[in-house]
Amino acid sequence: MIGRPATPPERPRDAAAGPLRPVRPRAGALLYVTVRDALHDAIRDGRFAPGERLPSTKDLAAMFEVSLVTTHRAMQSLEARGVLDRVQGRGTFVTERSERRVRRLAVVLQPQASLADYYYGDLLDGMNRAARELGADLLIRHATEPVRRVVPASNGSSPERVWGGCDAHLLVNPLPEAAEAFAVTLEDGVPSVLVGARHGDMPHVDVDNADLIEQAVTHLHDRGHRRILFVGGAGNLSNSRDRLDAFATTCEAFKVAAAPRLVASSWRLHDGEKRELGDLLGSSGGPTAVVAAGYYLALDVYDVAGRRGLEIPKHLSVVGVGDPMSAPHLSPPLTTMRQPLVELGHAAVEAAIHLIEGEPQPSINLRARLVPRASCRAI
User: Fold this and answer.
1) Contact 323, 338 (CB under 8 A)
2) How many CB atoms are located within 10 Å of the residue 62 CB?
3) Distance between CA 78 and CA 20 in Å, rounded?
4) CA–CA dist 332, 230 (Å, integer)
5) CA 107, CA 345: separation in Å to the nearest integer?
6) pLDDT for 189
7) 209-340 fold
8) Do 209-340 and 1-100 have the same topology in CATH?
9) What is the DSSP string of 157-176?
10) Around Cβ 276, how many Cβ atoms within 10 Å?
């Protein structure tokens, strides 16, 4: 435990700084997060010096005009970040800067993942923002060899040493075998958080894929479409399976005759799959609309439809998933489900820090948002 003076230091409050002000709820933010940020800002501004004891939880709650529970949760969050240090029977102190431990997080990507891709770029943007706020370092790793070969290590080395002394792993959209291999590190005290995926009981931060697909199908159903084709990604990824299952469930609920589903072997259609898609689109009584469960799959639908002489949306409406900068510049601009990727990355780092500090961390599912554009029409 960090030593503290017998009598906590008292110093005159900077009159210019003034008292802490009541907080007001921010749209889309939990109240304790608003309180946490206000208190953290006060510490950064020098209202509370390193080593100084804070007012009691009751006094802070009165200053912020919030409940004791909300204030306590905000202080717990700052304690988990290493900003505050609670000493039993003596109070809560601002941590000396030199005492703060920098957490090291390994961000593990699939071998084929490109940082230039909008998906990974936005995720890492959110992760970097959270790392700066929480005083963490990120180590980007590509799982270039099967993870089961190194975790646990055959030579008896601990996972911590094998993966660079990291305090936690953030596994981005891993294959099932990679997630399973990393699950063993939980037993060694090195937590792993799945990002954009689910696997067993491992903590995850993901998009609510069932809600995402339900929104897409509802948008088409409301516009009169009753023959809807699903084009999905590789079936060995949890997101792909979840989206396919949600499509079937939603179509059944709407009593919509789902067209034959095309499940790709990867994140894009290969030539044979494009021919299959062309046959489905050109068949008698074929689909009037497509839900493409990935941005690059939507591009393939545009390509195949054009080659078949089908105009979007005149002959075929399309809803995609993913909203990079190019989506509104397609011809026609793509109606799509925008995933909160920056927020996803931010939440993943926060979850990892909580797990490192021994705090229980429930899995998180964030909601995607429909962005209507010109690729859909009513029939």
Assistant:
1) yes
2) 15
3) 17
4) 20
5) 10
6) 67
7) Rossmann fold (3.40.50)
8) no
9) --HHHHTTS-SEEEEES--H
10) 16
Which range of 9-13, 144-148, 152-156, 244-248 scores highest in mean pLDDT? It is 244-248
Rounded-to-10 torsion of CA 12, 14, 90, 73: 160
- 202 in Cβ contact with 192 (< 8 Å): yes
CB contact at 8 A, 40 and 83? yes
Cα–Cα distance between 195 and 345 in angstroms, integer?
8
H/E stretch holding 343: helix 341-356
Distances, alpha carbon 198 to alpha carbons 124, 202, 375, in Å:
19, 7, 31
In the block, tokens 């939990």 appear at 30
Say if residues 313 and 251 touch (Cβ distance below 8 Å): no
Question: Which CATH superfamily hosts domain 103-206+342-366?
Answer: Response regulator (3.40.50.2300)
pLDDT at 256 over 80: yes
- 211, burial (CB in 10 Å: exposed 0-12, middle 13-18, buried 19+): middle
* Contact partners, residue 54, CB within 8 Å, separation at least 6: 48, 60, 75, 84, 91, 92, 93, 94
- Nearest residue to 107 via CA among 12, 20, 173, 18: 173
Q: How confident is the model at residue 161 (pLDDT cuts 50, 70, 90)?
A: very low
Structure tokens at 69: 């529970």
| Right CATH for 1-100 from 1.20.1440.230, 3.30.420.40, 3.30.300.30, 1.10.10.10 | 1.10.10.10
Which sign does the torsion angle of CA 344, 347, 353, 357 carry? negative
Place of tokens 């953290």: 40
CA 304 vs CA 9, 286, 334: distances in Å? 72, 14, 15
Which residue type sits at 111?
A: P
CA distances from 101 to 83, 95, 165, 211, 357 (A): 10, 10, 13, 39, 12
| pLDDT value of residue 164 | 52
Helix (H) or strand (E) segment spanning residue 80:
helix 68-80
